[in-house]
């Protein structure tokens, strides 16, 4: 029996197939090189399939990035791309793709950004590609895929307090290593996955790539269908594997009650340790990104920060993942809590996550961050360090000035 | 092919190392090449010469989808990357833009001071210095066709 990846790609593991894709997403870094290639192809592009989001270096950090954003804007006009998201209207590309209804179960979506695998949380097969193939897909509507083998992850049991999707996926990456799922698709099952919010599931699918995976798929349920009501563009059809009989390359089982708030130390996401076992002073705390910048993430952090101040030795930066998240956070009073705690709050951007702007680290500085990568120099100077964690750990650490398990703060 | 110099890199070389994000305001291979490995190996951009090869351990090119990474290597004159394994987006990007990749387990056998020659048709890496040869499995036919066409765009144009 086929896996979800095999069903959506309509082929058997190992086969190379050419398939029609539903959407192609590019951003301000990957988009311009893609459109330059399209110019060369001189095709009438499938512009209804294209989604263009300004998110990485916006608002522009310097003249070069301003020129790049301008070039992308001009290309969107030239190719008559209606699905274009200027700053003020969108946010971080993956959040925009999901909340604007492009993502739905059973769809095949590619994006010129490695965290495109996020959409697996809604039952889509989605994967990151480069600029040239994004261009090819915009020109022809199609792209080649090697149908991946699938690894099955079953997570049972009840996650403890302050244990989030982030801890589940860091645990898995720590277990398998950063190439443990290379070329493969991941599928997630079990009562713990079912009990997690869609937001937490998106965090899990988002970081599938950090184990090298091509996709991270969660079978869609009522939480997904409810989210899509009044939001999804067009029709969709959910795709499921025959859980018991599908041919998996490997099966991994976990008990969520054994997973604790987890931190990935420099310089790989697989380098994990329990937050409670670390005593690391920090200079910056970052809450945001496609991984953990949703309203659910902001609520968790705000609940911990409410009525408190962050450590005077720490800067805290809060970046909601989209304009919609920002607006909701204002309406719920979360932004007031962050500001009262002495955090800096900005509109949505990828900025600091990739060492771009809005929170770049100096030499020897350490950041506890809800983002997805802690590679050498990822958020700034080559001698700076990034520790990855969930929003609760980041908020607790901001208060204490050192990496802290939030259960330490709980009354 | 003639004699090639070797640059060795370890496991899990990520695309932030190959081309740091702050330089991603251009897609031009030559401009990108000026900053290749800027943070971890600053001498690379100055000293890499046309025809050089990179030999790495597992998971070369992990991390972001930035095609700027293989573009920077092409701009630096790198003729081929040999690794125990490649991250998948980097793998696709390289084939799609015409940078040859070889999956082979030679990281522990070939030194940086060695010179090598590669015969793609026969699937043989020759260590000229040590006078040893290593076979490698050619790419699947479809991917070889893409490479032979000069990348995905030339392939689409030909169709």
Notes on the protein architecture:
Chain A is built from 14 helices and 18 strands. Chain A is 30% helix and 18% strand. In chain A, the strands form five sheets. A five-stranded parallel beta sheet of chain A has the order 4-3-2-5-6, with helices on both faces. Chain A has a five-stranded parallel beta sheet with strand order 16-15-14-17-18. Chain A folds into two domains: 4-253, 2-Layer Sandwich (Aconitase, domain 3); 262-408, Aconitase, domain 3 (2-Layer Sandwich), CATH 3.30.499. In chain A, strand 12 (262-264) and strand 13 form a beta hairpin. Chain A has helices at residues 4-9, 31-41, 63-78, 93-99, 131-140, 165-176, 191-195, 198-206, 222-228, 289-292, 295-305, 323-331, 334-340, 391-400, and strands spanning 16-20, 23-27, 50-53, 84-85, 108-111, 125-128, 142-146, 150-156, 185-189, 215-217, 250-255, 262-264, 272-274, 284-288, 315-319, 344-345, 366-369, 385-388. Chain A is an alpha/beta fold. Chain B has seven helices and seven strands. Chain B has helices at 15-18, 29-33, 43-47, 68-75, 88-97, 141-149, 152-158, and strands at 4-9, 53-56, 80-83, 101-103, 115-119, 124-127, 132-135. Chain B is globular, with a radius of gyration of 15 Å. In chain B, a hairpin with a 4-residue loop joins strand 5 (115-119) and strand 6 (124-127). The longest helix of chain B is centred in the middle third of the chain and has 10 residues, at 88-97. Chain B is α/β, with parallel strands linked by helices and 159 residues long. In chain B, strands 4-3-2-1-5-6-7 form a seven-stranded mixed beta sheet, covered by helices on one side. The A-B interface holds A 16, 29-30, 32-33, 36-37, 40-41, 56-57, 62, 64-65, 67-68, 111-114, 116, 128-133, 135-136, 139-140, 144, 178-179, 182-183, 212, 214, 268, 354-356, 373, 375-378, 382 and B 12, 14, 16-17, 20-22, 24-27, 39-40, 58-59, 62-68, 70-71, 85, 87-89, 92-93, 96-97, 140, 142, 151-153, 156-157.
């Amino acid at each position: 029996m086929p896996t979800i990846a095999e069903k959506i790609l309509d082929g058997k593991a190992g086969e190379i197939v050419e398939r029609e894709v539903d959407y192609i997403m590019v951003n301000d870094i990957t988009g311009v090189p893609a459109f330059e290639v399209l110019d060369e192809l001189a095709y009438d592009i499938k512009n209804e399939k294209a989604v263009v989001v300004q998110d990485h270096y916006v608002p522009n950090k310097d003249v070069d990035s301003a020129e790049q954003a301008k070039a992308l804007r001009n290309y969107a006009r030239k190719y008559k791309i209606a699905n274009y998201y200027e700053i003020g209207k969108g946010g971080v590309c993956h959040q925009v793709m999901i909340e604007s209804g492009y993502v739905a179960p059973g769809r095949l979506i590619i994006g010129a950004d490695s965290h495109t695998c996020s959409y697996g949380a809604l039952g889509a097969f989605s994967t990151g590609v480069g600029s040239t193939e994004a261009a090819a897909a915009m020109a022809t509507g199609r792209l080649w895929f090697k149908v991946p083998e699938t690894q099955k992850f079953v997570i049972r049991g009840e996650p403890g307090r302050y244990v989030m999707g982030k801890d589940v996926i860091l645990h898995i990456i720590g277990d398998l290593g950063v190439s443990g799922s290379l070329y493969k698709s991941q599928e997630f099952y079990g009562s713990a996955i079912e009990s997690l919010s869609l937001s937490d599931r998106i965090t899990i699918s988002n970081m599938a790539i950090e184990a090298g995976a091509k996709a991270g798929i969660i079978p869609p349920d009522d939480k997904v269908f409810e989210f899509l009501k009044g939001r999804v563009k067009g029709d969709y059809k959910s795709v499921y594997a025959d859980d018991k009989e599908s041919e998996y390359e490997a099966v991994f089982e976990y008990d969520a009650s054994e997973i604790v708030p987890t931190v990935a130390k420099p310089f790989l996401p697989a380098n994990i340790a329990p937050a409670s076992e670390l005593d690391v002073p920090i200079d910056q705390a970052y809450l945001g990104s496609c991984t953990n910048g949703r309203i659910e993430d902001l609520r968790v952090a705000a609940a911990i920060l409410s009525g408190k101040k962050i450590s005077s030795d720490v800067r805290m930066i809060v970046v909601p993942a989209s304009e919609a998240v920002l607006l909701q956070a204002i309406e719920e009073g979360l932004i007031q809590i962050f500001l009262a705690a002495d955090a800096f709050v900005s509109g949505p951007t990828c900025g600091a996550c990739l060492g771009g702007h809005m929170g770049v680290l100096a030499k020897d500085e350490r950041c506890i961050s809800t983002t997805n990568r802690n590679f050498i120099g990822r958020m700034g100077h080559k001698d700076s360090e990034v520790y990855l964690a969930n929003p609760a750990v980041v908020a607790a650490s901001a208060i204490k000035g050192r990496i802290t398990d939030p259960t330490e703060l709980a009354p | 092919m003639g004699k090639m110099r070797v640059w060795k890199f370890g496991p899990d070389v990520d695309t932030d190392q190959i081309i740091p994000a702050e330089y991603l305001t251009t897609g031009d291979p030559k401009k990108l090449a000026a900053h290749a490995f800027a943070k971890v190996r600053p001498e690379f951009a100055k000293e890499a010469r046309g025809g050089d090869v990179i030999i790495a351990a597992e998971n070369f090119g992990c991390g972001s989808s930035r095609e700027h990474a293989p573009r920077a290597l092409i701009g630096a004159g790198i003729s081929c990357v040999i690794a125990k394994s490649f991250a998948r987006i980097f793998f696709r990007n390289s084939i799609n833009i015409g940078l040859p990749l070889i999956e082979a387990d030679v990281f522990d056998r070939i030194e940086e001071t060695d010179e090598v020659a590669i015969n793609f048709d026969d699937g043989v890496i020759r260590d000229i210095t040590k006078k040893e040869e290593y076979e490698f499995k050619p790419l699947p036919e479809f991917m070889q066709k893409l490479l032979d066409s000069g990348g995905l765009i030339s392939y689409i144009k030909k169709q």
